[in-house]
Amino acid sequence: MDKTPGKVHNTTLKSEVCNETFEVQYYLPKSFSDLYKYHVLITFDSQDFFKFGQIERLIEKLEKSEEIERSIIVGIPYPSVEWRKHYFNPNGENHDDFLTFVGRELNSFIDSNFPTLKMPNSKLLLGESLAGSFALSLALTYPNTFGQVLAFSPYVDDKLIDRFKDNMNLINLNIYHTIGLEEDDFTTIMGEQADFLTPNRKLHDVLSDEPLEYVYKELDGGHIWKTWKPELAEVLTYFLN
């Protein structure tokens, strides 16, 4: 396995539960060494986190200035916009199997191939839009494996909200949740009109009364990386400092 530091690598992982092979991306910082243990940033929509969020540059900068602890990035890219609807959406036909793939098979792949800190608070799930919904769903399903979640503007419906109500596993979670003030009426990449602001505020009302660590922000802007990218540095220092 190629462990050249300072570059984004692409590999594949065969899933037994899904009976298909998924692409996996990973980034090891320039200072990477097997002598150290690392936090893991697990990104969904990983190609967007690299291209638009430039997350690898950010961890290099923050690690160099000693604002975050040592971290690597492992991500799942999406092969098509349509694919996200079936795998990331909590109501998608492949969602449950994909949860098992990430929670068991991908997690095992990460711990077997990289020197990781094998604790729930050392694995941070990151996602935006449907990928943010998937990150929340995954943490609810495997709270003893993944203890930290960033959800930028997640797709939220009543079914997802109900999963958070009176859920005793929430005590293990630390969630950073944002929504844009211009997301009350916008066109999704699927070409559909949507209001994400209202249901995300409803989710916030529920989470505010539950026993977990929780940060909620309403950001100036819409459902785009121009809104999310400026928040990434604060997110990483919040979880990894």
TrEMBL record:
InterPro entries: AB_hydrolase_fold, Esterase-like, Mycobacterial_A85_antigen. This is Esterase. The lineage of its organism: Bacteria, Bacillati, Bacillota, Bacilli, Bacillales.
